Amino acid sequence: MTQKLAFIGFGVVGQGLAEIMLEKEKTLSEKYDFDFQVVAISDIKLGSVYDPKGLDLEEVLDMVESGVSLSEYPDGKTGWEPIKTIEESNADTIIEVTFTDMETGGPALDHVRTALKHGKDVVSTNKGPVAQKLEELQSLAEENDVQYKFEGTVLSGTPALNLALKTLAGCEIKKVKGIVNGTTNYILSKMEEGMDYEDALQKAQELGYAEADPTGDVEGVDAQGKTLILANTLMDAGLDLKEVEREGITGLTLEDIEDAKEEGHRWKLIAQAEKKGDGVDAKVGPEKIPLDHPLAGVMGPTNAITYTTDHLGEVTIIGPGAGKEETGYALLVDLLSL
Questions:
Q1: Residue 104 binned pLDDT confidence (cut-offs 50, 70, 90)
Q2: Active-site residue set
Q3: Does this model's pTM top 0.90?
């Protein structure tokens, strides 16, 4: 059966998925029995179009690259807002890749909630809804016999959640400890080479690792959201964002970096959640890691997570935590799992 897909948001990540699906269309069909039609796209900047018979994805990507509004697509209905697209299109799966507010979960939260209520599967890379309303959204999905997938919310295409939930099924995960923000890891790596914080941040911005306003990364907000997702998804912690302690890297100096070196340690911004009694303690903050720990060798924008389990001891996964193709791939994995 052909999956009918609607993109809510069609920025870098959405386009990354579209490019992968076009490139691998034949393989996806033959090897995974995954046939698809993109029937709708609704993006706040690029415009919107809906054709129940399916859109020409190659033409859509050409229009976007040329700066032509999707509202000028030759067939179908245009001008549909995201909620209308979710409610009234014939899509059976919603790909939610808009921007999100970590404090409220919006506007992505409304999109996900609406889709699930209308009996549509959702795949998304948005951290906000998972961080704010995971239990509610999972209940909604169950009530409406659909699925809500969000692998890409933690380490992009590196399968952090799938590893823990599927491959390590049967293990109790007692502790999660990791580097989940590539921007801060890159900055700390450059500081270890002798670059001061401001210069390292500027370099990260030049390379596209850091935003013009880097607050969300360097103050630990991004990592805080990912820690919450890990704790609630893997440990049923039931925590709120404010219950995850947070400290960024802006207070670290070159002297701190050098002192750690002399001690045989290395500073990392560490996200961690650990079962304690009947609850889970979760926090984000700079930590000196001994050089013989797997996380200490993770440099640059790369991410990694170590799971402490009852049967296997420590299991570490390392890989990219961001990127157009990498995050697009996370969405593809979720689509295939449907």
A1: confident
A2: 226
A3: yes
